Amino acid sequence: MVKKPPRANWLESIRLKILAAYNCDCGDRPRLLTESRFEGDEEIVYLHCLASRPSLSCDGLLCFPEQDWIIVLNPSTRQLRRFPSGLNHKCRFGFGLWSSFSPEKWAIGFGRDKVTGSFKVVRLCFFFREIGQEEPVLECGVLDVQTGVWSKLSPPPHVVNPGSKSVCVNGSIYWLNFEVGEYCKLLALDLHKQEFNRIPLPATGLGATKETLIVNFEEHLAYVNTSKLPEWRLDIWSMDNTDQKQWSKTFSIRLELKVVAWRRKNRWFTPVAVSKQGNLVFCDNQKRLFKYYPGTNEIRCLSLDTYVISPYSENLVSLPLKPSHQYPHLSVETRMSRCRLFSKESSSSWIFQALRRNEFSILEIVFTSLVVAGYICLPRM
Questions:
Q1: How does pLDDT run across 320-329, given as a tens digit for each residue?
Q2: Farthest CA pair distance, the chain
Q3: From CA 179, how far away is CA 160, in angstroms rounded?
Q4: Exposed, middle or buried: residue 155 (CB in 10 Å: 0-12, 13-18, 19+)?
Q5: What's the CA gap between 245 and 249, in Å, rounded?
Q6: What was the pLDDT predicted at 369?
Q7: Which of 93, 154, 163, 165 is 20 to 30 A from residue 51's alpha carbon, by CA?
Q8: How much is the mean pLDDT over the chain?
Q9: DSSP code string of 50-115
């Protein structure tokens, strides 16, 4: 007779985990909080970071592009590696035309080579040396997280919108590009071959808008469109992984006014994942989390305040630290956290305990020490 697993283990096996940002601007390194929250059958796992911080995810790992650094984090193992932001890392441009090198002017991709299994970061930088210049100067590179080395990448067939959100599916990174007066284009980069390809979009009958997105949806590239007329509707098309020309509509959901909050016109929705029961979990750009039940055609609001990052999947892959990693990040165990949410539990020094109990700042302690020392050293009258 087969023994049934405990109910807790059974619930764990069917529960959908979602990674969300615990919005904190303390500037400390991102890491998982020890406690999660449950919304129905969904478990919300929180990452300590600023919610507005740009990030990319792939197979449980996260990438944070910054002005001077590319940060790769494995939340499950708490390993974090910091890499130069590009081939010309020593050249900082913070003013004038050269400010085009800032992250908001890049097109960034993060994904995993399906052949070698190595995680890679792609940076496409398009800038103009002179005002009125028609063709931009390109700087394209790919970073191998395993070796920590940047290499040159052949330029794409067309310019990619700076700041456009990318997604990795089945070893390729995709960008959805909008051009004035033209239809949008879908660009793919095979991370192993390092070759760009143009991918045909699904025949939706609707033009792409700023609310149109591409996401990794159940290990398929999904084209997501939120339309307002003649009614609010969320449509999701999924691409066939074996034939990139084949798309199929997987969801078409009529959105009620209580879901869209019609007073806010700038509204788009993003699918997160499908539960084991076949229900669709999706979110909007106003921190709200929903669940759609196809059987009853019902939509329920799970949360009014959740900054969804991605579905959460535990990955115990190690991020190597080699001599080729020129700028390793300090381990969290070697320094005190600046956020009150965390403390070094193994520390038992009275200074640390005083800091934690009384929440004194370093400046307050220094100032108090100087006052006491000055009082002692004052000459007695």
A1: 876 656 554 5
A2: 93
A3: 9
A4: middle
A5: 13
A6: 56
A7: 93
A8: 80
A9: -TTS--EEETTEEEEE-SSEEEEEETTTTEEEEEESSTTTT----SGGGGGGSGGGEEEEEEE-TT
